[in-house]
Every structure is written in structure tokens, then in C-alpha cells.
Amino acid sequence: MERIAVHVGDIGAIANDVAYMIGNAVSGANRTYVINTMLAICGSRFGRGFLNVCRNNLRID
Length: 61
Prior knowledge:
Blueprint: H1 2-17, H2 21-42
């Protein structure tokens, strides 16, 4: 998910380069949403502890 967030940020940077400020703002908001979702799921914005060998640390309610 961090990689997705970085790509969304890059799309915003490309939009900013061509003077499309709305695209930059929307991409920034979407990037924040992706990062905060990963943080809420596993406690780390980088996804540490999301996947482990032979065990599951996530509680899905």
C-alpha cells in the first residue's frame, strides 16, 4: 500500500507539472487516505506486520 501511495503522489506531481492544481490536490488527498488506511489496518504505514509466515496478527471484526 505504501507503494500505491507513492504512485498516487507521483501522479499528483505530474499533474502539478502541467499546472493542473486540482489533480494535484485530489492525488494528495487520495495518498493520505491510502496511508491512513494502512496505518489503521496494521499499525504501520509501511505495512509491517501485515503478512507473516505461518501466522496472522490481524484481528478482523
